[in-house]
## 1
Amino acid sequence: MSLSVCQPRKRVAVIGAGAAGLAALRHTSCRPEVFEVMCFEQSAVIGGTWVYNDDVGTDQYGLPVHSSMYKNLRTNLPKEAMAFPDFPFEKDGRSFLKHEEVLDYLEKYADHFNLKKYIKFLTEVKHVDPVKDGHGGVTWNIKVKDVRVADDTSDSSFVADAVIVCNGYGVLGRMHFNGSLTKFEGQVIHSHDYRVPEAFANKVVCCVGCGASGQDIALEVASKAKQVYLSHNKPALSTSLPDNLSQTSGIVELTADGGMMKNGQKLEFDVLLLCTGYHYSFPFLSANCHVNIDDGRVTPLYKHIVHTEFPTLFFIGICTKLCPFPQFHNTVKFILATLDGTFQLPPKEDMMAEEQREFEWRLKKGYAHRHAHLMGPLQWDYFNELADLGKYERLPKAVQNLFDEIHRTRCNDLQNYRNINYQITGPETFEVRY
């Protein structure tokens, strides 16, 4: 049964005004009779990781630079597949966009749905703590701070009935490595701090990691570097590569001037560029929230979203390797279905048991522990399950079909796949447009 309009509105706090936070605002704010929403954003603008910043390290307020965006980035998904389902990109123009164009899209999304009035900018969330009401329920005490004030005199407190965490994933780079990084006497940089290829002109670079960012950054660095080694333990890429970009196996041990590789090679390089992914981080959640992060796995989360002990604490963006904006849309719709009673969450014990069964299934299928939330081809059944439970419309099949086509063309022609443009032509169909 849905929440009656006679009942008090649920106060929802959203942490972060990137794409996930904007989706949360869009769907809560359009139901003012049910939800009262406020968003806390520590920067002065919306967009999260899509806001390019030349700086690395910390910003003017001493906070970590949030964005991992590099200057020349273009999306590795076409706009026709990555759009929010209820707000398509403009049809004209190329399919694979610059980061500035995606940020412009998010600005238009926020303006179209009048979202900025719900956002408290330049506001850092310092502390989130559950407060039990004595009747089995929980409210959330949220302490925030104006980032422009050096001391704690600007601290304010808010109370919410539910919290949606949308603070992003690509901030805290994974820097762990086989052997000690201190052995290597050259430059070590994580992809989070990569901005332009000119910084590697005439250098020999070992780019570690063959995910989407590793492939793209290795290609870009090769345009300026003397030599680039793409180090990974996945099957070799079958696409053509520049003459000065070669694949090699993973590093077994670093040396002062390079590394020993798994395949027996000893390579010398000037720069170790780590495209090795990110850690989840929720520094504002108190220990009382009982959120655990262990080697890439966040627990206890039902459907990768709902805290099983505190089912009014939600996370958007935990899952990786999928269509992000459609994921955010689906996750928010599912969250609101649990809050308004459209979907009745199972008992805590059942949610925890399902979480464990899914994780053990992944391990049996060969997934690494750190890939507890990796989706890839699993995303479509996952999206459909959320939609069916929440009783809202599934994503059109055309999005999956186009996503799968891009994966195929990317594998076959990494250097040129972005030159193709597409259009969705029906619920299940798409075509190449010229």
## 2
Amino acid sequence: MHHFTFPQRLAIFRPGPAGQLVIGLASALALALAVTGSGRLTAQVEGERGIAPLATTTDIQVGGIEVNTTGKTAEEAREAGWNEAQRKAWEQIKGAKLSDAQIDALVSAVVIEREQIGPHRYVARLGVVFDRAKAGGLIAAGEGGVERSRSAPLLVMPILESGGVGQLFEVRGLWQRAWANFQTGASPIDYVRPVGAGGESLLLTAGQANRRSRLWWRGILDQFNASDVLIPIARLERQWPGGPVKGTFTARYGPDNTYLDSFTLTAPDERGVPKMLNQALVRIDQIYAGALYQGVLRPDATLVTDQSAFYAALQALQAAAAQGAPIDDGVASVPVPGVTPSATPSVAVKISTYTVQFASPDAGAVDTALASVRSSAGVQGAATSSIAIGGTSVMRVTSGGSLEELAAALRARGWQVTVGNNALSIRR
């Protein structure tokens, strides 16, 4: 009688820890599919969610300007109306004192919201769009000489609390829609507005605002190319069905959910809630802008880690190792009698010079830019080579790192950097 026996290798096989983990996950997935079905497992990222933000540019748009002008002809009256609208829009954004011809050179478009043209009269409501590249430096000086700089890219997480439940992108909410429709061109805050569809609804939740892990926040901000996070919260309280709706709005920011300011508004009924949210958004934008001007709204140093000094030290160590030089570990060497220490070859750090362009609306902006660049990691010195007050000035920067390392160091200081051919362009 023959007996079948397993091979010895097969008989003694036992899965290791990794194999046990894979088998356990596969078993759990098979059980979940058997109990709930595949449809429910994918329901968390499906459905009607996500609102695409308006495709706004960085241009400065001012709308709702009423004009009423006259002229010898209809065309002359219309031209006078457009010039008056451009002048009023320029005064509204507190631009420098310029002539009508100079203001016209800064305008990229005129938006006709409503107009009535007569033989000798022009009545209209217009919007004016200024090119930020041309006009940005001329509106940098605001009230009291405070610098009106543009912030670093900031991720927006608009949280809506309604009925005791906090939500962000789980469903299409009115607060998310208000932020998606917001015209950000005239704001000094560089808002990064997620769509909220697909995996973004799982990554960005209302509970994320209470996390403190810097590693987790860095992973999220890197995906959206942002430097920090803004958390505007809207809490709606309904007095009775069909009655007034009270809204409490709070502006918070940063990975620690830091409080800035709050206020309350009231809508007469549900139909007035969208208008109330739009009004609240404008006030929250003003709160963030005020915090930026006061120097409060700065990128968290624990989120934007400057690695340029580390890379420079690493290159020096690699160069020393390639030349066979001993590496200084910080421990003092003890002289040995009768032994002559060998000469240690010095490691030369390569110094490079780069050209950096920056907006200089006034002399204070030049001093501020120089001080910020000089205090960046790896920078040996910085001096202006061309100054254009009211335009774009140029400085020459000597640095011990590469152009990319210099750009990373300036981004860590809150600058928005554009890399060119051995040159950089920076702006706030």
